[in-house]
């Protein structure tokens, strides 16, 4: 589990002082684990006890364990400069993630929803959304695909608490999407977020999170490429989890 995912998991426990410390850590990921607790406190201009409390809020026994975690997270993967190997690493990480992820509550939401909406915040994300829509047809679950943010905005007033949303976003920080997401949350409309594995507003706003590990690769000409295969894999995993959920339900009858 990454630091960003830990922050999402324990978000409700954290205060402004914690986020101030985390800002320093996230901006100095490659060096901060070299610092003892006194030096870390000095670098963040906070007390030792503030550093210790943050580590414990994130689930660590103390600062030493937190420091080991930060060092482990910074270790480079073999072949990290090779784009194909990085793609395989991303896929392998996602396979491990979906194998351990309990999607039962998400499947229940989908099964009990009167309407299911799916939205992708960009071109590739919309392709993922259409693929989800196609897969669920075989289970007689008909997902309503929202084509763009304007359509999303127009429909917002009509969304009900017995609807369910699936929102696919690479960053989870798309500015024009945030107001709609907050409206859903305020109205009590549940939604499942599928985002890259990092701390983001979309994932913070719902307890139903799925993460796709897709690390950007910067080429020699400074072009950045991002793999979307992990998003398709996570979407397929959600569909297969739903299939298994219904099969088990039918078996128990």
TrEMBL record:
<dbReference type="InterPro" id="IPR046348">
    <property type="entry name" value="SIS_dom_sf"/>
</dbReference>
<dbReference type="GO" id="GO:0003700">
    <property type="term" value="F:DNA-binding transcription factor activity"/>
</dbReference>
<dbReference type="InterPro" id="IPR047640">
    <property type="entry name" value="RpiR-like"/>
</dbReference>
<dbReference type="InterPro" id="IPR036388">
    <property type="entry name" value="WH-like_DNA-bd_sf"/>
</dbReference>
<keyword id="KW-0804">Transcription</keyword>
<protein>
    <submittedName>
        <fullName>HTH-type transcriptional regulator GlvR</fullName>
    </submittedName>
</protein>
<dbReference type="GO" id="GO:1901135">
    <property type="term" value="P:carbohydrate derivative metabolic process"/>
</dbReference>
<dbReference type="InterPro" id="IPR000281">
    <property type="entry name" value="HTH_RpiR"/>
</dbReference>
<dbReference type="GO" id="GO:0097367">
    <property type="term" value="F:carbohydrate derivative binding"/>
</dbReference>
<dbReference type="InterPro" id="IPR009057">
    <property type="entry name" value="Homeodomain-like_sf"/>
</dbReference>
<keyword id="KW-0238">DNA-binding</keyword>
<dbReference type="InterPro" id="IPR001347">
    <property type="entry name" value="SIS_dom"/>
</dbReference>
<dbReference type="Pfam" id="PF01418">
    <property type="entry name" value="HTH_6"/>
</dbReference>
<dbReference type="Pfam" id="PF01380">
    <property type="entry name" value="SIS"/>
</dbReference>
<dbReference type="InterPro" id="IPR035472">
    <property type="entry name" value="RpiR-like_SIS"/>
</dbReference>
<dbReference type="GO" id="GO:0003677">
    <property type="term" value="F:DNA binding"/>
</dbReference>
<keyword id="KW-0805">Transcription regulation</keyword>
């Amino acid at each position: 589990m990454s630091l960003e995912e830990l922050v999402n998991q324990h978000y409700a426990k954290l205060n402004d002082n914690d986020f101030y410390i985390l800002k320093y850590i996230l901006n100095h990921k490659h060096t901060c684990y070299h610092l003892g607790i006194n030096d870390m406190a000095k670098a963040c201009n906070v007390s030792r006890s503030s550093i210790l409390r943050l580590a414990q809020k994130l689930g660590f026994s103390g600062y030493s364990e937190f420091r080991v975690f930060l060092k482990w997270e910074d270790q480079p993967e073999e072949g990290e400069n090779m784009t194909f190997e990085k793609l395989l690493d991303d896929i392998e990480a996602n396979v491990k993630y979906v194998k351990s992820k309990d999607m039962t509550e998400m499947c229940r939401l989908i099964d009990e929803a009167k309407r299911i909406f799916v939205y992708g915040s960009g071109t590739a994300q919309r392709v993922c959304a259409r693929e989800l829509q196609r897969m669920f047809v075989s289970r007689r679950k008909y997902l309503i695909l929202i084509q763009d943010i304007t359509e999303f905005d127009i429909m917002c007033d009509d969304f009900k608490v017995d609807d369910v949303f699936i929102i696919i976003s690479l960053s989870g920080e798309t500015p024009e999407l945030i107001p709609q997401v907050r409206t859903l949350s305020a109205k009590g409309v549940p939604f499942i977020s599928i985002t890259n594995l990092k701390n983001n507003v979309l994932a913070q706003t719902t307890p139903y999170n799925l993460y796709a590990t897709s690390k950007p690769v910067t080429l020699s000409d400074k072009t950045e490429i991002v793999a979307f295969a992990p998003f398709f894999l996570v979407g397929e995993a959600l569909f297969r989890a739903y299939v298994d959920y219904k099969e088990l339900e039918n078996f128990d009858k």
